[in-house]
Amino acid sequence: MNEMKKGVHMMRKLWVAFFASLVLAMPSWVSARSHAGGGADVHLPVGHMWKHEGLDEQKWMEMVQKYTPEQEEEWKKVLDERNALRQQLNDENVKQAIKEKCKKMKKEREAALDRLIDQLANKKITKEQFKQELKQLHKKKRWMTKEEKQQLHQLHEQTRQAMENNDQEAMKKLLPQWLEHMKKKNERLAKWLQEVKQG
């Protein structure tokens, strides 16, 4: 039984460490703002995209005007929506609501984990069931699914290669994919903000 308590204690420490890293990472995207740059070339060093969590609005629009000008209005709309959502994130009341929501989510996850550990300790569930339930618990707190992360990584890589090689055909195909990605991200953020505001 002592081993079980050590395991439970270790698992709780892991959860707390994971949640702390999540909370510490949050301000980077919560307070992200577009970086205004002056007249930079469309073909930027590849690291720029990842360093700043994506290109700033001016760079996106330069690429859109060059490769997919027919989508310019749609891009403007999506980027304006992104800016509006980011402004909401900077509101002090929203920041406080986010803190409260994070605390509530943490307590709910800890309670769910405690229930799982108790069920395992009391032999109400098997180790395999415990692992499955734990996976489900992890899935609930993810911003993106594993598949979405892989698709985004692939999109980043394809865009990096197209930018390095000045591949216009590839860029014409990739920019609409980025537009769809940004639309989904805006929808997800808007939904999340709505949930935060409702408490």
CA-CA gap between termini: 40 Å
Which structural category fits the helices and strands?
A: mainly alpha
Order of helices and strands: HHHHHHHH
Helix content: over 70%
Describe the protein.
The protein has 199 residues and is mostly helical. It contains eight helices and no strands. About 16% of the residues have low confidence.
Provide a quick synopsis of the model.
The protein has helices at 2-30, 47-51, 57-67, 72-90, 92-121, 127-140, 146-165, 168-198. The chain has 8 helices and no strands.
Q: Mind sketching the topology for me?
A:
Elements: H1 2-30, H2 47-51, H3 57-67, H4 72-90, H5 92-121, H6 127-140, H7 146-165, H8 168-198
Helix pairs in contact: 1-5, 3-4, 4-8, 5-6, 7-8
What attributes does this structure have?
single chain; 199 residues; mainly alpha; elongated; 8 helices
